[in-house]
Amino acid sequence: MYPGFDNPRFFGQFQTIMIPIMHGLYFHRIWQEKIFNRGILAAILILQWCIVWALAGRGVMLGIAAAFSILLLTTGPRYRRLLLQALLAMLIGLALYWLFFFCIPSWAGLAQDIPSGLRFGLSKRDTLWLGAWEMIKSNPLLGVGPLHFSAVWNHIGAHPHQAVLQFAAEWGVPATLLLLWIVARAMWQGLMVVRTQPTPLDAGLWAALMASLVLAQVDGVFVMPYTEGWLALIAGLALARWQQPGHAANTLSLWSGYMMKAVLLLAVLVIAKILIVDVPVLHETYREFYEQHRIGSPPRFWDQGWIPM
Fold first, then answer.
1. pTM score
2. For the O-antigen ligase-related domain, which residue ranges apply (predicted)?
């Protein structure tokens, strides 16, 4: 019933979140107390890095490397041990990948016909980005509508694999600028906490969020419900840890509380409408759409793009 990830990139998105946090947990006092626990965690990290190399997760490597590099440049030597451990685990994972997929098959006389996924180029992403840019130019203020990028069908992908372009194309430039300001402010606040109250776990949380943001510039991080669910949990945990004591109570006024409840109520109503009206006929809707456009891609909830008005 659940065969796994339809695309290895989806698992790579999860690794982008998990690996930095696990590196931070390695130096947490709970894990430091027992060598056995640290050994298990180190083995899992090395295995995950081996999988990253095996899946040729270019975006995963880019995201984690960028996050740790920013952490190093902005915090100095505070997290030197964490960064060195991450580098060591990555190199050991590479050696393990080379051993399992090349050395052992060679020694055993097995055929080495495993294609390498490591490649250069944009994998036709530039075509998707140009399509998103055309949508932005034609609808700069309000966009074409949430999830409506996929309404204009193409044979490459149902989303542009670039978060900023997708938000701007679907929600408009003003909403995108507001979103970027909110995200930048939140990440800056988190970085200040990581710098002034250095704990490896907080550094891992911040690196996980930053790595996901970097990965979102070349992959569909914010269109995959599985990844979005994990990001919501991690972002909530980070906000809870980084929130200043008493700050929420002082800034959350009565009116803002009512507004938040109204937004939550609206979200519940929209989700209820989807579950009651749209979900029961999803299969028929998928089949009709695929027969009309003669495509064979796996069904996705947002694949058709149009939201009934």
1. 0.78
2. 44-180
